[in-house]
Amino acid sequence: MDVTNIAAGVSGSLGVIGYGLAAVGPGVGVGLVVSKTIESIARQPELAARLQVTMWLGIAFTEALALIGLATPFIFGA
Amino acid sequence: MVHALDLISAGVAASTSGSGFEAPSINEFYPQAVLFAGTPYEMNRIMLIRILVTVLLLVVFSLWAGKFKKSAAEGKLVPGRFQLMGEISLDFVRKSIAHDQLGKVDGDRFLPLLTTIFFTTLGMNITGIIPSLNIAGTSLIGLPIVMAVAAYVTFIFAGVKKHGAGFFKASLFPAGVPAAFYILVTPIEFLSTFILRPVTLALRLTMNMIAGHLLLVLCFGATQFFLFQASGGFKAFGAGTFLFGFIFTLFEILVAFLQAYVFTLLTTVYIQLALADEH
């Protein structure tokens, strides 16, 4: 059984697979943003408030990619 | 863009009754019309919820305004419980968003817009977890688009008023880049500043609310299915899905606050970037 046969046997929504792929990058990205913020707060606890604001901004920008991934099946799909 | 318009316009609500598990679908967001069916002014549940939230916001804010005015006239220094709630809420936007990002003068200039965006978004988001309303007013993209357009117009207006045509030059041709690279940089900057900013503002809010609502429907739909339709040991799964539904409800409260905060914060940052002096 070669790859094309396996691919032909798979059924279901491509949008779901697409969203799964779209969620990988932002997942790693949000993790990085938060881990770096925790590190920075551990180094300089007095900056915690400012760092948190920047963290939310970073999360918002990163998360937008996953949410666009969620939107595309509705916009371009059937 | 025809498909995108389909998302905005009202679709047909699919109501299939009977046994078996009903998975939530996008049709959740296009409930049946309640009033004026067939006209452009068609009203469904979501529209009624939006009107309810708007009326509630107007009432609460006019009560607050009356209280503030009264205690200022009487020279009363200690606020009551209701007044304190208003002061804390309004001060949150004013101090920790506007003043922090824009400074006192510019912060107060744009405060009306920022306050409106924050409380409208918060009020419309929170209906997603209020029992018997159960759907966020922001879960259809129309309202987020209106607020994103307001933010878009405001930050361009702020930039043009301060720098004139220099605003477009500064945002399309950032300083410190070798001239040859502008072929590459300018289209990217144009795309990210003038197209992706408003689009992501609106999409982020809507998609968060849609995803949250679908998760809750999935959890409680599964609970209903396991408890009342499944047999034997499967009923025990119902307790698990109910617990997950409860946890996600708490999570949705957090998301409602967070998305209101993020929307306001991003608007503020965009205004701040437009106002920033060229380097």
DSSP summary: helix tally of chain B:
9
The rough form of chain A would be described as elongated
Instruction: Compute the separation of the termini of chain A in Å.
Output: 31 Å
Count of the domains of chain B: 1
Helix count of chain A?
A: 3
List the helices and strands and how they pair.
The complex is a heterodimer of chains A (78) and B (279).
Chain A lengths: L2 H7 L4 H30 L4 H29 L2
Chain B lengths: L1 H7 L24 E3 L7 E2 H30 L6 H22 L1 H6 L1 H16 L15 H22 L2 H7 L9 H47 L6 H41 L4
Antiparallel strand pairs in B: 1-2
Helix pairs in contact in B: 2-5, 3-5, 3-9, 5-9, 6-8, 6-9, 8-9
Report on this model:
The complex is a heterodimer of chains A (78) and B (279). Chain A is 85% helix and 0% strand. With 78 residues, chain A is an all-alpha fold. Chain A has a domain at 29-78. In chain A, helix 2 runs antiparallel to helix 3 (48-76). The model of chain A has no long low-confidence stretch (mean pLDDT 87). Chain B has 279 residues and is an all-alpha fold. Chain B has one domain. Chain B is 71% helix and 2% strand. In chain B, helix 5 packs antiparallel against helix 9 and helix 8 packs antiparallel against helix 9. Chain B is globular and about 70 Å long. The chains are: A mainly alpha (78), B mainly alpha (279).
